[in-house]
Amino acid sequence: MLNDPLANALSKIMNAERLGRTEVLVKPVSNTIKSVFQVLQDNHYLGEFKEIDDSKGNVIKVNLIGHINKCGAIKPRFNSGKEKFEFFEKRYLPAKDFGLLIVSTSQGILTHKQAKEKGIGGRMIAYCY
After folding, report:
1. Domains within the chain, CATH numbers bracketed
2. Is this prediction's pTM over 0.90?
3. Which residues of the chain have pLDDT under 70?
């Protein structure tokens, strides 16, 4: 039984990156996981990914391009206002403007930079650099 499917998915990706694999299968599938993968793909951390129908549920096949140094879920899911992103950048990212924090906002799942531009806060759910 999985307690946090997003943390499990990011852990699988991180382990496959360390082993030098070019693709990984992620299960279970959720809209949150697909949205986080889309954000990572838009920021050139992941290659293409697609959902494959399976007889026991769906699987996401992710192509890895080797650009991830570290990624993970943020637990507990901290609330953050638009002025507190710098605190979490210092906490989870190695340097300023290096990497990204993924935030769940009222306008969808965004990076912390996009949320700053829109002037909204949200819950911190993951980081990647």
Report:
1. 5-64 (3.30.1370.30), 71-128 (3.30.1490.10)
2. yes
3. 1
